[in-house]
Amino acid sequence: MDEKNTDEEIVVRMVEISKHFPGVLANDKVNLTLHRGEVLALLGENGAGKSTLMNMLVGLYRPDGGQIYINGKLAEIHSPQDSMALGVGMIHQEFMLVGNMTVAENIILGMKGLAVIPPMAEIKAKITELSKRYGLQVYPNKIIQELSVGEQQRVEILKLLYRGAQILILDEPTAVLTPGEARDLNEIIKKMLSEGKSAIFITHKMDEVMEFSHTVQVLRRGKSVSVCATNTIERVQDLANMMVGRDILFSLERGQYKPGEVKLEAKNLVIKTIGGERNVLDDISFQLRGGEILGIAGVAGNGQQQLTEALTGLLHVSSGNIIINGKDLTNKTPLQIIKSGVSHIPADRGRMGVVGDMSVGDNLSMKKYRTEELSNHSIIKRGLVRIFAEKLISAFTIKTPSQDTSVKFLSGGNIQKTILAREIDSCGGILIAVYPSRGLDVGATEAVRQNLIKQRDMGNAVLLVSEELEELLMVADRIAVMFEGKFMAILDVKEAKTEEIGLLMAGVQRRDV
């Protein structure tokens, strides 16, 4: 990385930034500097304060202390509109797009200064020009819901470029992309940097940090603990150690693959859209045995969520059968599925995984409160609940001021840990895990993967949905690849290759399944 010493090259300076939430000091006098043409990787464990810091830079939060300077001038940022006016924009992990509107309509949505009837021909021409300049390959007239996840991310980038952003903040930018799309994003970022733009990205993928960034800044417990040039870091392991303060295992020990009896079977499952015009799940069949992990690979939106919701009783199956431990439980209630021994880590942790206004302790006990372990003749024993909750908080290193804290006040990663703790503890033989390590730091991700393997080695059956090919190749015994509601192939992990899986995820080729 070139040396950047002059004040003129500094585009963002955050000085002594602090932010408090109830019972939590999220940021403690954090300093951050971003130079023109630079990519800064912002790293840290879950709850370290990364997202809070960036949300203050884009006007979603107000700092309790400190100053923010943009291009050398003190900035008063009260809203995202203020930050955008200063050339700062953020692409969130959950895209902010309206599905039934066109690309062009989304890009100008909410912009000030537009005529009552916007000049759409001019707008589309500018979008097309930007798309060609940066290699984004997006068509202005396309409807958002018809686009792939990778294409939707390009729309988000175009939206910021159209509005004049010079400083881009990307939150987990490749979490929902195929390997090919991630490489394309890298090229797009390089093109923007060559024009003097700058970027900050939050990620937990160590290889991305080494490939994308010029500078690494690490937060730990709300404080900045390290800033260094990326090219001074010799090993990925060193980077992980900076984050969590200990060595991380990048390979995991596991017992021999000895699949047992079939615990879960899907036969010709079909789920139609509400109008019945197409199948979102199209003739899916597979068997999942005790003592094995079946991975489901695919870009988000290709039927993985519908499959897991059907298996857990949350979504009605149009046709086909779901057999659990030899019993046909097709279209049974979620409670009946739970009682059959199925645990479920859902994709949407906020909407389906926790009750935000309830305490951490109560969320941890939601699967056990009916049992004699925590209740007596339907009367919950609060003392036992507290002991139980403390055990899981400790075992899964959930960072919370106390077990009485409302779970909505935890960081996203610690909310995920709360769900993981509850579901793994209550697993009765079958664990369905949907993106269980999404949003988790490297230390927590290591623990999740170890827990999945432990379940498998105990003889339980694990269905793992993940967009992380590295995770699937490390943890799974077999990998099924989904595209547009179909299984493109089911591969033995020993024979699976990253490039082939990437092609299957993009629908390029198909094997008999």
Show the helix and strand layout.
Elements: E1 10-21, E2 24-35, E3 39-44, H1 50-57, E4 65-70, E5 73-74, H2 80-85, E6 88-91, H3 103-108, H4 120-134, H5 149-162, E7 167-171, H6 179-194, E8 198-202, H7 206-212, E9 215-220, E10 223-229, H8 236-244, E11 262-272, E12 279-289, E13 292-297, H9 304-311, E14 319-324, E15 327-328, H10 334-339, E16 342-345, H11 349-353, H12 360-364, E17 375-376, E18 379-380, H13 382-395, H14 412-425, E19 430-434, H15 442-457, E20 461-465, H16 469-475, E21 478-483, E22 486-492, H17 498-505
Parallel strand pairs: 3-8, 3-9, 6-7, 7-8, 13-20, 13-21, 16-19, 19-20
Antiparallel strand pairs: 1-2, 1-4, 4-5, 9-10, 11-12, 11-14, 14-15, 17-18, 21-22
GO molecular function, one term: ATP hydrolysis activity
Keywords: ATP-binding, Nucleotide-binding, Repeat, Transport
Organism: Sphaerochaeta pleomorpha (strain ATCC BAA-1885 / DSM 22778 / Grapes)
How would you describe what is shown here?
InterPro entries: AAA+_ATPase (IPR003593), ABC_carbohydrate_import_ATPase (IPR050107), ABC_transporter-like_ATP-bd (IPR003439), ABC_transporter-like_CS (IPR017871), P-loop_NTPase (IPR027417). One of its GO terms (molecular function) is ATP hydrolysis activity. This is ATPase component of uncharacterized ABC-type transporter. By secondary structure, the protein is an alpha/beta fold. The protein has 4 domains: 7-87 and 166-248, 3-Layer(aba) Sandwich (Rossmann fold); 96-164, no CATH class; 252-341 and 430-436 and 458-513, 3-Layer(aba) Sandwich (Rossmann fold), CATH 3.40.50; 349-426, no CATH class. Helix content is 32%, strand content 26%. It has helices at 50-57, 80-85, 103-108, 120-134, 149-162, 179-194, 206-212, 236-244, 304-311, 334-339, 349-353, 360-364, 382-395, 412-425, 442-457, 469-475, 498-505; strands at 10-21, 24-35, 39-44, 65-70, 73-74, 88-91, 167-171, 198-202, 215-220, 223-229, 262-272, 279-289, 292-297, 319-324, 327-328, 342-345, 375-376, 379-380, 430-434, 461-465, 478-483, 486-492. The strands form 5 sheets. The protein has a 6-stranded mixed sheet, with helices on both faces. Strands 16-19-20-13-21-22 form a 6-stranded mixed sheet, with helices on both faces. A 4-stranded antiparallel sheet has the order 2-1-4-5, with helices on one face. Strand 9 and strand 10 form a beta hairpin. It is globular and about 65 Å long. The model is unreliable at 1-7 (pLDDT under 50).
